[in-house]
């Protein structure tokens, strides 16, 4: 569920996208682009910085560090419509009675919410939220990876999780990602997440990458693989 204490308006969401795509952006440039007063931009930047969505500087703002992802509850409220649309589109590619991996992320959770019309799926996941979303379906067979639970986002990680994922081979692997480089390299922040994603890719006959346009402006340090590793 989204954090009810955080609300960002459409202009603030556009500010986040602009800063992440361009790096440093001055308050004056943003005020001109959004046709508002500089004071309004300063208030927006101050609020977004307090929420950890960007870094405030004198006269402007920059993206957050490339070595740490933004908080889960903040990711939940960004690009909701796009994530829901991506999840719905990806779900339409999954036939009934399929087997699939689903990994960590808010977009893969949107995908899981879109599986309501499916029947007899066999799901392997290291995402506790995904498991909860599909837990009410008696015709679904769900395997939850062993491992260490990361409470902040429901991720299940570690050597035991990798061993669980590596014990299966599925028709589909449904993965999210934190960033996509210009050359098609798939990027993420956390080594444990990267290892789980690689295991899913290796053990899936076809891989669905779920990513909205903002992932092309983010450059985490860790390499998962490349677009060439994906069949869909």
Automatic annotation (TrEMBL):
InterPro entries: Carb_Metab_HTH_regulators (IPR050313), DeoR-like_C (IPR014036), DeoR_HTH (IPR001034), NagB/RpiA_transferase-like (IPR037171), Tscrpt_reg_HTH_DeoR_CS (IPR018356), WH-like_DNA-bd_sf (IPR036388), WH_DNA-bd_sf (IPR036390)
PROSITE patterns with a match to the protein in the record: HTH_DEOR_1, HTH_DEOR_2
Entry keywords, A to Z: DNA-binding, Repressor, Transcription, Transcription regulation
Gene3D superfamilies: 4-hydroxybutyrate coenzyme like domains (3.30.750.70), Winged helix-like DNA-binding domain superfamily/Winged helix DNA-binding domain (1.10.10.10)
Short name of one Pfam family: HTH_DeoR
Molecular-function GO term, any one: DNA binding
Residues covered by the HTH deoR-type domain: 8-63
Protein name: DeoR/GlpR family transcriptional regulator
Species in which this protein is naturally found: Gluconobacter cerinus
């Amino acid at each position: 569920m989204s954090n009810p204490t955080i609300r960002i308006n459409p202009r603030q969401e556009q500010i986040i996208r602009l800063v992440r795509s361009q790096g440093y952006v001055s308050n004056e440039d943003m005020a001109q682009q959004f046709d508002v007063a500089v004071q309004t931009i300063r208030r927006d930047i101050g609020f977004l910085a307090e929420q950890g969505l960007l870094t405030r500087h004198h006269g402007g703002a920059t993206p957050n560090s490339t070595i740490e992802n933004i908080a889960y509850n903040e990711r939940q409220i960004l690009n909701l419509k796009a994530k829901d649309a991506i999840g719905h589109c990806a779900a339409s590619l999954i036939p009934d009675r399929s087997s699939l991996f689903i990994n960590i992320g808010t977009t893969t959770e949107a995908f899981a919410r879109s599986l309501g019309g499916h029947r007899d799926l066999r799901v392997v996941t290291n995402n506790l939220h995904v498991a909860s979303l599909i837990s009410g379906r008696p015709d679904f067979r769900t395997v939850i990876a062993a491992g260490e639970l990361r409470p902040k986002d429901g991720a299940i990680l570690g050597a035991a999780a990798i061993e669980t994922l590596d014990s299966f081979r599925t028709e589909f692997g449904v993965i999210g990602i934190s960033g996509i480089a210009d050359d098609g390299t798939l990027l993420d922040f956390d080594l444990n997440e990267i290892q789980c994603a690689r295991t899913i890719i290796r053990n899936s006959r076809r891989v669905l990458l779920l990513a909205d346009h903002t992932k092309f402006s983010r450059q985490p340090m860790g390499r998962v693989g490349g677009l060439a590793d994906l069949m869909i």
